[in-house]
Amino acid sequence: MESDDDDFMSVASSADDFMGTQGSDDESLGDDFGDDFDGGFSKDRDIVATARKPYEVDQKVLSPEDIEREQNLQVNEVSSILGLPPESSAILLRFGRWNREKLIESYMDHPEQTLDDAGLGTNFESTPKAQVVSGFMCDICCEDSDDLETYAMRCGHRFCVDCYRHYLAQKIREEGEAARIQCPGNECHMIVDSKSLSLLVTSDLRERYRTLLTRTYVDDKENLKWCPAPNCEYAVDCHVKQRELNHIVPTVQCDCKHHFCFGCSLNDHQPAPCTLVKMWLQKCEDDSETANWISANTKECPKCSSTIEKNGGCNHMTCRKCKHEFCWMCMGLWSEHGTSWYNCNRFEEKSGSDARTEQARSRASLERYLHYYNRYANHEQSAKLDKDLYLKTEKKMTSLQSSSNLSWIEVQFLDTASQTLQECRQTLKWTYAFAYYLARNNLTEIFEDNQKDLEMAVESLSEMFEKPVNELANLKVDILDKTAYCNKRRVILLSYTADNLKKGEWLFNVKW
Amino acid sequence: MFASKRLGKELMKMQEHLPPGISIVKSENLEEWQMDIKVLDDNPLYQNEIYRLKFTFGSKYPIEPPEVQFIEIKPTSTEPPETKRPIPIHPHIYSNGIICLDLLSSAGWSPVQTVESICMSIQSMLTANTRDERPPGDSDFVSYNRRRPRDINFMYDDDNV
């Protein structure tokens, strides 16, 4: 197939572009079909990327043009291997979810079956074009004038061009459909190909159609993900597979500067793995407010552990559920209270102290959760203030410039410090979610030390950062040092957790 | 303008000839038609009953599917009992008349389908059914659903009925 007559995707398919992405693209194709576990961290990759830290992953950012180019490259390749028109090969590839090897194999084994399943039909002789057919009546609009322009794909179901156009517009604009638009005919599964489409619709719809196709391409490929930042059009190429997510937290950075997790598309949540993050977020959504309130306002029935709120009245409690009678003050049996009704001044009676121990045990797990949650929430709150902080930084930098004899370049240290603070708080926040699910072993102590070191460094940098402007110039060296130290502590913490995660050394108190 | 010419033609054709068990009740305007259908074989579930279908056409018909549902008519004491039109019992027909049928969704619709072909499809959907039951969750759906049938995402999980 010659590349100059394929108007099915006409953007940027010059020879230069092809050369530009060839190397890396071969790589992406190869990996796609390799089923070995260490696809993401094979040996030669480690040799090439010597500077990579244990918690970093190989990634590449793709613009919409890159994605389209990548698609075209594969389409043309399959087209030349199978000897099919590119628009048909595109349908085949989409049908096979871009698994080129598998597709070619299936086509070689059962060509007709494969074409049929993909919605292509097997008749490749005629080249469909719009034409006037005498004596024709359109089954959709019932129009039958003599000069009616009509169109039929290779399936032979003929409709007037106007109806075809309306039909396609409906599918593309209203239903957001592109890759799976079928022939308007009843029970006909022939997919409308890009060549037919561009013959029939206006340019704005063609544009929309291409966007939708690109979207399905990224959605279909396991190694591609859209950047979730609002209005960002880039996708990230990364070879970490879903099944590797228990051993690696693949944070990627888009060219729009957004850091996100390639596994789950949430904001960067290193060092906690995706599954734990999901569990944690769910738990916080369900429990945090309630747990706080429960902890402050309720006690549990000493017998059946139902949670009870005392909203006034005397200390004589009767559990609604198990009818156990106890004293709210000492948690002991009410029957032992003898005559001191409605007033508990007893201390250290056996039944009371047993009940309190039991109570304490169940409260301990709640307290444990709240311990981690409060620290997590605190860093999250601080992270939310980051935006303000950043804006303030800019103002500080400007006023520092005018109040001291520092140049613009020389006040950049504040910008760097602010960014470091943001990153470190984000990391710290997730260390608490991670720690909540961590069972104690030899590693946890080192982890907690790392966490403490980073937290102390961050707090002291944060304190310096908030000093009045006139003191900042004198603090420059200190701030620079502290910033570097924070970054170093963060790298150490993340490397340590990532290394052990890869080796499966962490013990968790939950199954996941 | 799109719908009117096509519906005019459909009506003309149906006035000339209609398949057995299908009749036109109301077709004066081009927004809403009503059709009566009967099940022709001796399926005991639908014996001696006539059912009424209401078709609502949008301006994009037949590019978009029409909205089709059963309507219930309970004759008052002064009306003859033959005017009764119940909602047929079927695992894909809710008791408020809403029909869960792939053909009527935008994904399963083909602009080549007609009022007549829809009636025939529904006829055969009834004929083939042996289950004397409503869809699961019928009572909840009927009391809480305020959406129009076209906006509901049915799951076509059962192709056997």
From TrEMBL, chain A:
Its EC number is 2.3.2.31. Residues 24-36 have a biased composition (Acidic residues). Keywords: Metal-binding, Repeat, Transferase, Ubl conjugation pathway, Zinc, Zinc-finger. InterPro entries: Ariadne, ARIH1-like_UBL, E3_UB_ligase_RBR, IBR_dom, TRIAD_supradom, Znf_C3HC4_RING-type, Znf_RING, Znf_RING/FYVE/PHD. PROSITE patterns: TRIAD, ZF_RING_1, ZF_RING_2. Residues 1-36 are annotated as: Disordered. Residues 134-348, 138-184 form the RING-type domain. The keyword Flavoprotein does not apply. It catalyses: [E2 ubiquitin-conjugating enzyme]-S-ubiquitinyl-L-cysteine + [acceptor protein]-L-lysine = [E2 ubiquitin-conjugating enzyme]-L-cysteine + [acceptor protein]-N(6)-ubiquitinyl-L-lysine. PANTHER family: RBR FAMILY RING FINGER AND IBR DOMAIN-CONTAINING. This is RBR-type E3 ubiquitin transferase. It comes from Aspergillus cavernicola.
TrEMBL record, chain B:
Keywords: Ubl conjugation pathway. This is Ubiquitin-conjugating enzyme/RWD-like protein. It holds the Pfam family UQ_con. It comes from the Eukaryota. Residues 2-161 form the UBC core domain. The keyword Kinase does not apply. It comes from Aspergillus cavernicola. The keyword Translocase does not apply.
